[in-house]
Amino acid sequence: MAFIDHAIGLWKRRVHYFSDIGIARREPVIEITVLGTPVYIIGSAKIHTTPTASHFLALVFCNIPNHGIDSPGDSSLLEGVRTTKRILNSKLGTDMNHKAARLTSKRFRELGTKETSIGLEVDLFGWVKHEVMRLVSESAYGPDNPFWDPEVESAFWEFEGSTIAFCFTNFLPKWMVPGLVNGIHGREVVVKALDKYLHTGHLVQGSPVVNAHYLLFKAGLDERDVARFEAANTLGTFGNTVPIAFWLLYHIYSNVELLADIRAMIDLQKLPTATVFFSAVEEVSRHRATGMGVRVVTEDTIVSEGSNSYHLKKNGWIVIANRALHTDRDVWGDTAESFVPGRFLGKTPHISFRGFGNGASACCGKNFATYLIATFVALMVMRFDMEPVDGIWREPEQDGRMLAAQVAGPVKSPMVKMVAREDLSKVVW
Q1: How many domains does the chain have?
Q2: Rounded to two decimals, what is the model's pTM?
Q3: Which Pfam families match (predicted)?
């Protein structure tokens, strides 16, 4: 009855379940069966690079944009990823970074109000969701972007929080999948808003990335599907930047010594030289990893690690359990399970690091996201003091429903009090 146990485990632990198995067993390849489908969990860095040959389908899209994506759509989405990479690695990408920094600085000046000077109580994750989405969406879509509409903002988080429900429709009838109705509703609100944005002239103020996506998708898809595929892109755009920013704030503010050290070393006029921030962003994506890489075995094949070999059956699923790889002491040392902000300042085992994905599933917007998160958190740290309303920092549990994100947000967010720092209230960064 092991297959029932696995189904129950997935239901309870969601995406954490695969990492749970990888961490518990610490074997190169672990085979389980879920609802009749063989699933191969890669639980060790010793073999996780092997599943990249032509025997494996590079990426699986779990019917998120529209129940059933055909091959032309897959091709357009993958070409969109490549296009995004090219743009963000060019001068246009540098310009987007600078624009995001200017918008972030402007927003924090607006937040320095009388209300924050006496103390503002907020749900920290909810506040970060709103503020980071505001900044990322304006950087990507311009000042008339649809995500400034509270209804669209709320709908996106309904959609993002239900991505695992869309994937369960591969195995279960839709009526048996909890959260699917809300997810479909949220997705359709986002699609409708993006469709309006794309066809009412606002695109001209959008970033080079969004304009390139529009031309690419329009060439190969029906008009309505252009917005649908752009909605799929937003899962990566917002789904990773928000939780990483939240966890970085949590780790800094909950550690008094770290907060003091970071404030002492910051020169925001030269943020690119404050390399500890960029290291800390990567460390959050390592330490807080909940995502996974997914492949489909396209034909029976055998992979090996040392003297051990493993038979992978056609149509089986390969799951690269990121957290299992990121907590391997043989790779990361005795501090593998600890948050070490300066870890990435030195040499790190790149092949075992899957923060922001890796290989075919690597995040094409990693550099932009890292720069924006570092800027946002640096300004927050320099402008505001923050502590829990009840005075005690408690580490929140991570939410296993967030399938689209490499790093999941908290199940329950702490309530915090933000107070503008008096000695910096008039400083313009």
Answers
A1: 1
A2: 0.86
A3: p450
